[in-house]
Amino acid sequence: MPIERRSIQGLRPLFGRLGLWLCLCLSAVAVLAEPPPRTPDNPKPAEGDVVIDLPNESQLVFRRLTVPGPGFWGDQQRVIQIGDATGGIFEGLQRTQISGSFPNADGTGWEILLAKYELTRGQYIAVMGLERLLAVSADPEDQKIPTLDGRAKREALMRPLASVSHQDIQDFIRTLNQWLFDPAHPERTTKLPTYADVPGFIRLPTEEELEYATRGGQPALEAGVFDDRLPFDAARLDEYAWHLGNAKHQLRPIGLRQPNGLGLYDLIGNAQEMTTGVFRPEIWQGKPGGVAVRGGSVSTPPADLRSSLRAELDVYAWKPDEGRIEERRSYNTGARLAIGSNVVLTTAQRKALEDEYLAYRNETRRAMPVGRTLDNLVAQASVQLGTVDPIIERLMADNPALREPLQTVQVYMDRARDRLELAQRESARSLAQDAARNGVNLSVYLSRLERLAATLESAQKLAELSTRYQDQVEAVERSIREIETAAREQLQGYRDKIAKLGEYEPDYIAQAFKTLGEGELPVRERAVMELLAVHVEEFAEQRRAEPERWLEEFRARFKDFKDN
Hints:
By secondary structure, this protein is an alpha+beta fold. It has helices spanning 3-10, 14-31, 121-128, 130-136, 150-157, 166-180, 207-215, 217-223, 237-240, 244-247, 347-362, 377-398, 403-465, 470-501, 506-517, 523-542, 547-557, and strands at residues 50-53, 59-68, 79-82, 94-97, 102-103, 109-115, 194-195, 198-199, 201-203, 272-278, 291-294, 310-313, 316-319, 324-327, 333-335, 338-340.
């Protein structure tokens, strides 16, 4: 058995495999329970399909993906790990929160509505017309469509739409939404899901939605296989995906391979799929580029396929030989649609979100990835180490012969975790100490400004009596400007340190203040530490710096201040 296959299987606990098998069996049973009719737009109909009508008797078919947790803002169940430690440089492990666009029927969770198949040429023609496809497509095979009939034409129309630009896809979505929401035809929106009684609209999916779907969604989370490199045994890749090894750069009609446990086809392979976001090297951060595409394609080597695979589509491609930019029309890049909804729809609904946010901010949010900085690499390393423990446990359970070396690895990991723990505590203490130093300097400058303000007032009164005091006025004003500049620099440093310190866990922050507060402190420094503790706590809760308000609080605290 190849090493890669053995490793993947080793990551799956027995109950995970049984859980996934059960999900697939249940899906197979559901297929028999009154599926919608078979059509070229839905060649593998299944119970639970959400069918949206298109012009010219065509359809779009969506599947509902459950997102756990009833609250709008989220809970711990929605925190997922994406990326792949063995993937490319753009697939580093990251933790994020997955969210749905629509509440489910019983109010126990939310739903993502994602297209069951990739967008096809036939669906594009149904909305935009054949002439439009012939005008925008860079695929010579599309020019043959008017000459085809029978099976050849049907298969051509069932192939994923590709060789068109990103803007062509957006034009299609815009035209489709206009058709759906034509005031003269209110019946067209009746099959769309709703949020706050407002129907959703068609859009491209996000990267997180696609990776969540590719990994198998909530059933995979519950089965313990969500973090696996592939959502199926690597030995069965050909059953689930079209790739370079079995498709040789040629896109294939939708629905020919096996669906995943959610009933979705070709999430891996066939056409790589555009997303709604620009490409950033680490999804949330880094230089914005073209458009992020997901899933690999018929040109991807089979060994490179994985749930986390992502790449950049250079929407505006530079042609060095011609010295110009052109819109990229990639032969292996297409799209999969989603149904979305706006966040704020009514005043009453916004008020409900605000009320719920208060509880969310004080409880769940602080533990969410949004409540942690991506710059805190030590904290990230600590979190990632924690994800390795269950993997090692599974490997030891599945490979008794490896128990001793894996236990050695575990010992080294425990030591690394201890060192990271120490590093975080020391880093938090150092940041608190630096912020306190900035605060002390700021308070000293404010005290000087207070005294200079009194001096300036006296000098201005003397200058009214005699011009020979004007030089004194100018000297005092110059000193005030210099100290105000210095005070601003200290305030900026104070703000920056708080922004970093506020990202640490509360225990590290509390330990930092406890350590710095031990022993006798000068009166001024003690006063600064009291303000600093309040400001750090506010930032940790609200993730917002308010330096101007902090400055006024410093002014009030140190007005007429005496150091002894």
